[in-house]
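Q: My labmate handed me this sequence with no annotations at all. I'd like to see what the chain might look like in three dimensions before we decide whether it's worth expressing. Could you predict it?
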Amino acid sequence: MKINLVAGGPRYLIPDFHLYEEENVIWVGIDRGVFYLLEAGVNPAAAFGDFDSVSEEELANIEKAVADLKKFKPEKDETDMELALNWALDQHPESIAIFGATGGRLDHFMANIQLLVRPLEEDAPVHIQIIDSHNILYVKKPGSYTVKQIEDFKYVSFLPVTPAVSGLSLENFKYPLNDCHIPMGSTLCISNELIRGHGTFSFSEGILLVVRSKD
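A: Here is what I predict for the chain of 215 residues:
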């Protein structure tokens, strides 16, 4: 089972949902993201939010279309995204893809990046990605990983989300590295490219944000 979460970020950054449809995918809307799904003809299995970003008419349509509607007061300790992600993790899916989580308010975007870290630290066995029309983002803890070329997302960047990442090595990249220490704030690993069908990255300490991008 895979779970796709759709939040209410700017529409121009949200890719075509039909590119991510599979038989075993559960779609979940978050606040205005529910309306985006309904407009695209995708019926969400569940919905989360305080729904302060939709009109009364849109909310009425959401209430008619979604049987499992989890509505919250605006005054709460968690964001709508955190509530939905926690629910998704409790379902023990194979993977979670998050759409509509970039652009717009920078505080929400930064919080969404940080939400990727906690499941990693808790060793949740699920791959979580934030996806928009120009980027794919995910975080990794120390280890060795393979990345494959994606024609539309040829740039690969590596950014520490901890004070530093140690022992970073890149193989089969245009700009290789060997056992490098990368402090937070360094731009050394921005806009790299794979030179073959796949490459590897590995590191020994810290948490690394991986960003696949296109212009």
